[in-house]
């Protein structure tokens, strides 16, 4: 009887120790998850391609479980050694959003364009006329078109234009990189070349390169905030000439419907004469 009593006390003590260890583990895990950590957030919307200034940032504390992986812990990490703005936004950063390395690039690194290529994209070099790219700035977004000449199934010569890619981010124009200060230009006020570098996916690169190989590339510039894709059908020259021909036929028909009396009235009005 005495042994049973001692065993029951022993089992009770073991159970209490196990419960204490279990509860301590839960408390420790909970504390590690709920402990406050420092993060850097945008205190206002930061536009794509703009320099991230100290006044655009706030350093706050959040529960550890809400911290985004690899997000910056201190504002000083986004500044140069002398405390100046050093990073640019590779994509728009919304107000209250934590600052992630994948969304920014250090413009102070003079190591080429590789540091400003957004994740999941490649840098594609394109050659446009110098006169046309002078209006472009790094950070602009463009739609790229190709004017193509080909022979259709009826062996007739055709000219068409189609959209090769839409909403393409410009990383550089001439020697000027996204987020860097504009470099000195030539005496004519133009960049030394007509090259631009665009951020594209592998699929977009294939389409643009093929369209440029077989046709002439052109572009349009998108306004700020326009990021949607639009379905645009390819347009053939015959489509335009067909519309023109129909318009001419309609006008000719209208002219042929003018009566002789109307012609005489017009002639009398303007002092001339018509013979039918």
Structure report:
It is a single chain. This protein is of the alpha+beta class and 276 residues long. It folds into three domains: 34-108, Antifreeze-like/N-acetylneuraminic acid synthase C-terminal domain (Type Iii Antifreeze Protein Isoform Hplc 12), CATH 3.90.1210; 110-233, no CATH class; 239-270, no CATH class. 29% of the residues lie in helices and 26% in strands. It is built from five helices and eleven strands, in the order αβββββαββββαββαα. It has helices at residues 2-34, 130-133, 202-214, 237-256, 260-270; strands at 36-42, 57-63, 87-89, 104-106, 122-127, 141-151, 157-173, 176-177, 195-200, 215-221, 235-236. A hairpin with a 5-residue loop joins strand 6 (141-151) and strand 7 (157-173). The N and C termini lie far apart (139 Å). 20% of the residues are buried.
The parts where pLDDT drops under 50 for at least 5 residues are 186-192, 272-276
Mean pLDDT across the residues is 76
User: How many H/I helices?
Assistant: 5
How would a textbook summarize the main sheet? Answer: 7 strands, antiparallel
Shape: elongated
The number of E-state strands comes to 11
Supply the helix-strand structural class.
alpha+beta
- How much beta, percentage-wise? 25-35%
Amount of helix: 25-40%
Tell me the series of helices and strands, N- to C-terminal. HEEEEEHEEEEHEEHH
Radius of gyration: 34 Å
What distance lies between the first and last C-alpha atoms, to the nearest angstrom?
139 Å
Please, how many domains?
3
């Amino acid at each position: 009887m005495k042994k049973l009593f001692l065993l029951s006390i022993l089992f009770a003590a073991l159970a209490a120790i196990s419960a204490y260890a279990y509860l301590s583990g839960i408390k420790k895990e909970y504390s590690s998850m709920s402990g406050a950590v420092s993060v850097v957030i945008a205190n206002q919307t930061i536009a794509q391609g703009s320099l991230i200034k100290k006044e655009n940032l706030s350093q706050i504390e959040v529960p550890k479980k809400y911290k985004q992986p690899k997000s910056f812990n201190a504002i000083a990490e986004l500044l140069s050694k002398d405390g100046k703005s050093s990073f640019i936004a590779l994509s728009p950063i919304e107000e209250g959003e934590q600052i992630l390395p994948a969304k920014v690039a250090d413009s102070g690194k003079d190591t080429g364009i590789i540091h400003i290529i957004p994740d999941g994209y490649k840098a594609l070099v394109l050659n446009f006329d110098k006169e046309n790219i002078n209006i472009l700035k790094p950070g602009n977004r463009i739609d790229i078109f190709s004017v193509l000449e080909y022979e259709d199934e009826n062996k007739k010569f055709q000219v068409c234009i189609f959209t090769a890619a839409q909403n393409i981010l410009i990383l550089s124009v001439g020697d000027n990189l996204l987020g860097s200060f504009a470099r000195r230009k030539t005496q004519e006020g133009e960049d030394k070349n007509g090259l631009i570098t665009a951020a594209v996916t592998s699929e977009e690169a294939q389409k643009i390169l093929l369209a440029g190989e077989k046709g002439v590339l052109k572009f349009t510039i998108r306004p700020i905030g326009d990021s949607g894709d639009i379905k645009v059908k390819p347009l053939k020259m015959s489509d335009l000439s067909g519309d023109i021909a129909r318009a001419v036929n309609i006008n000719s028909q209208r002219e042929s419907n003018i009566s002789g009396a109307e012609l005489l009235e017009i002639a009398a009005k303007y002092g001339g004469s018509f013979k039918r």
